[in-house]
Amino acid sequence: MQSSMITCKDFLRELSDYLDDATDPALRAELEKHINECPNCWVVTDTTRKTIQVYKGMDLHPLPEAVHHKLMNALAQRAAQKQAKSGS
Ligand SMILES: [Zn+2]
Q: What is the C-alpha to C-alpha distance for residues 7 and 70, in angstroms, rounded to an integer?
């Protein structure tokens, strides 16, 4: 019996801890070894990591300041143009 081998079931159970960097180094090494040898778990890890990053990014930056300014400027300009037209 190879005690160092982990199964896909083991891997998926540890996946969220692995992505949170919450696993101990020995287990982390085993999980990384499994990803390298198992395409299915690699895809699951990659997809889950990207999804987490998107959600974290949305939390940190609900609306980037620069985008907000551009939006407000565009609205102000449009309003000014409307006023100029109706004023003539
Ligand atoms: Zn696997």
A: 51
